[in-house]
């Protein structure tokens, strides 16, 4: 599968361990079904080789010998030519008979509106209307990818939920929009926030299981204002290159005005933090704050909202809130982005030790096929799982992170451990290095919502309760 140098869209750098690889995750799934088809075809070829030739000695060797997801359109002309030649051999009589059958079926459906109406009434109540072209592409991808990946059939079957649409609607499991319990919680939040002196400890307790959308902007501000960075210095980055890559499937983030806001936020943060400057991945951390503070002024779904409809004062307020809250977040994890990123190195090592204690079988499975934790968990730490989860899930996850002491720096470790063990069955089913890396870099979380995040956080809290105060328990 070695890709020609002329077809490579970027150059990999192996100077630092754990270099970021631009592979797809939950936010950036491959949109071409041929990728999956070619992957399965190559898997079958690889299985036919002797065991010695299948074994990869390192992750960089695997990366060099694997074509990138950006190369999925290289064989487009070949596929089109082969398909067009087959179309020419189609029998005209068969085509006419098929067309006549389609017309007949259509007339029968129009003659029985009652049956159609009853069929529609049987559809799940949480099916969403597709509004954007990005949703259409994702639904088309789901239809093509679900069939060949038989190992994912063990997951619960649910209606297709767009990855990027309904950012404000996190309830992907089909629960009612507002239950009695949720109304009670919302009222409690409003009482806390309307008091003359807000009890931040009580606000954190209420925020742990999730913050209602109506009060999330002001809650996030209050949970982020304890300290603010005041460093001075100079710095810079390749910021304008990364910004267009931020959530490329969401139209909101492709608007020039939004990209200008992101560029100012990242540039100002970089020159105020010369110890790290701008590092690829920090751009992702702005998006949840921007969406939450934008939702304060937008009642409809923000995915396709045109920000030019807002006044300059409103846009400046959203920009300022996003900047200060992102700065507060990065204050606690800045060592993740200094030279050689030592914070991430330590967290990945701690994750390896923790997994070896809580699930020795998974840990030994990685060792058997020479999979290093840094090869997949670097991105989990660098982007706080944002590339692995839909944005709606990240917003819910950050409700808890902001209410948990050292949530982004400490509690995130246990969330990553719980997230890894969540896929233990799929991990143990893979029996080669390439299959494991492809799985761990493209985990099927497109259907996730509040229910799945709640279970993930509960398991993470259990792990923290067992190991946080006894760090020696990491090791045998």
From TrEMBL:
Keyword Phosphoprotein annotated: yes
SUPFAM superfamilies: Ypt/Rab-GAP domain of gyp1p
Highest rank taxon of the organism: Eukaryota
Protein name as it appears in the record: TBC1 domain family member 22B
Domain Rab-GAP TBC span(s) in chain numbering: 210-405
Keyword Phosphoprotein: yes
Chain ranges passing through the membrane: none
PANTHER family the record matches: TBC1 DOMAIN FAMILY MEMBER 22B (PTHR22957:SF462), TBC1 DOMAIN FAMILY MEMBER GTPASE-ACTIVATING PROTEIN (PTHR22957)
Alphabetical UniProt keywords: GTPase activation, Phosphoprotein
Molecular functions (GO terms): 14-3-3 protein binding; GTPase activator activity
InterPro entries for the chain: Rab-GAP-TBC_dom (IPR000195), Rab-GAP_TBC_sf (IPR035969)
Function, in words: May act as a GTPase-activating protein for Rab family protein(s).
